[in-house]
# Entry
Amino acid sequence: MNTQNSVSVSTEIVGDVALVAVDNPPVNALSVHVRTGLQDAIARINADQSAKVVVIYARGRTFIAGADITEFGKPPMQPSLPDLLNEIEQSAIPLVCVLHGTALGGGLEVALACHARVAVAGARIGLPEVLIGLLPGAGGTQRVPRLAGIAVALDMCLSGRQVKVAEALEMGLVDRIDAGDPRAVALEAGQDVIAGKLATRKTCDLDAEADDAALAAARRMVAEKHPNLVSPQRCIEAIALSTGPMAAGMQAERAAFMDCLATPQRAGLIHAFFGERAVANVPEKAATPREVASIGVIGGGTMGSGIATSALLAGIPVTLVEVTDEALQRGVATITGNLDGAVKRGKLSAEARDATLAMLGAATTLEALAGVDLVIEAVFEQMEVKKEIFGKLDAICKPGAILASNTSYLDIDEIAAQTARPEDVIGLHFFSPAHIMRLLEIVVGAKTAPEVTATGFALAKRMQKVGVRAGVCDGFIGNRILAHYSKTAAYLVLDGASPQQVDRALEDFGFAMGPHKVGDLAGLDIGWMTRKRKAAERPSNERYAGDVSDRICENGWFGRKSGKGFYVYDGRDMRPNPEVEEIIADERRKAGITPREFSDGEIVDRYLTAMIVEAARVVEDGIALRPLDVDIVFLMGYGFPRFRGGPLHYADTIGAAELVRRIEDYARQDPQYWQVPELLREMAQSGRSFADINKEA
Ligand code: T1G
# Structure
């Protein structure tokens, strides 16, 4: 047995088998030193004929999870992955690959270039490149069709989904599934090749069968579902060429890959990928979270029952508290419905549903929460009600229990002051529907203990949510910014645009839904109550934005839930509400406004600039730790188009100087609303970007 090592690739010869191990924690990404190590190992073994078969496997928790995403956007380093994989495929000595954990992107492409693939039970494979604005760039679009057909290639490349190896075996993407530790599986696989018990072949020697129907269906799906995205279309065109010569297909794939690499979409989606992980880097990260083995949820309404469902799905027993039996039963029924929905979507088995529901307790007194580790209050958004509850919880709950509020706006410090243990009070702001939406704003009070904050982040991870740290102010990160830019939508309508034009312009920009449709979905009465709550503190020189919405609500039209809002809802049919057009015309007359034309471009510019202005202030005030925290809040909680990376990543594509120019231009009409944040002015002078600020943090 002799071994040869590079930084992250080592070779061990056992008998006639060369075991080539990749070891590049945390996920064995194909960084340049890994590519070099693999290239050297395979060339050496072919040169010195020191083995009859080579088996590539990986150490650590997973096989190669793809190309090293941190290398994208930097000057390319040799060897390129396509070149390395062609060398693997053309190797005279057969190569086998053993897949454990998640073999993704370039990692799966390494395996596809090998001459046989053995999976370890429980592994998953995937081509998630489209999720970061790319397409497989090292043969995935050419080799998957040859092994498994064009339909499978389209499915995997356009969904980016992770496929369990049992399904991959059926697809023909792996040759067998074994159990055991990867090195042992690798050695056995190598010996089986020599013994003729595991066949090997070159994927490039296979032909892909034409499948025009699948290609046509994919083109239709992408045009409908992803009209803004570049890489899905390029991916289909590359796969379509897989029925022709391999070299031509590889060339076309590479050209498409390089084009996608250069798109702002790739930058936006990769910013989102790393941002989702970076938000967990908070000052309290080193603190030890408290154990949460039981949760009490107060309030069985939409939010309370969604939060309870999310906790139950994370395996945490829940006690739901409501004021009356009737309300309690409604809450339990909603939770049961949420779980049934998960069964319908194939996310939960019927048995698991029953076991999950068995962890739900229900009570009509707060005393039932005396022994729980964490209480989450999700009652009516009124300060007095919340203060009363926290005062009672302070007397009831055990020492060390965490007292959390799901308030969307209110002052956590004021709530905490109702207790003798403000260090145990925190805001856990879920988004509706709470068992679906992945965002959790973790609102840290002035006296919140670090381990309580750390517990919030640990809970987010257990609930498979993305926790974002927020400071205390009205509306925290998301709703504070929403409260500001939603005024722009109202001003645009008063000044001449129609609600439909505003919605369409922002949907074309990439939002899943325009602001008026979102308002109708969430319920226009929420904004109405907020305007009433804040009426006293509205500056006298601020232009009121609620004229039209107030009149809609005064008619009892709160949106979808009342069948009318900015739109009229008739079953699945939705159309503009003609009575709103009359209200708008009347409000313009009353304000002496002569409506003017707005281009879609100006609508987008004004709306996004307003969003960026308040987002910059949220960073300036330290409510958000970094600009990327704002981006992740808007990507995960407010339907901001992921390919644009979030409001402040998008702001960098405009530039601080241009933003300052725009704001000063808009301020000529409305100097109270349009004011340049200090941070933006400083960035315009210094040339700093929000990306720079993220790096400094
Ligand atoms: N490159 C660089 N860093 C990566 C990485 C990658 N591919 N994948 C993960 N990381 C970092 C991540 O930022 C985090 O860092 C740490 O690893 C743990 O990740 C040519 C072009 C594998 C399922 O898109 O989906 O191949 O925060 O927290 O929840 O065709 O990571 O600790 O500093 O996510 O257990 C295609 C991306 C690339 C897969 C593990 N591959 N990764 O999830 O851990 S493009 C992907 C994941 C490509 C070729 C093309 C997940 C995971 P930090 P984590 P996890």
User: Anything to note?
Assistant: The radius of gyration is 28 Å. The mean pLDDT is 96. The pocket of (2S,3S)-3-hydroxy-2-methylbutanoyl-COA is lined by residues 26-27, 29, 65-70, 81, 102, 104-106, 109, 128-129, 132, 134, 136-138, 140, 274, 277 (CB under 6 Å).
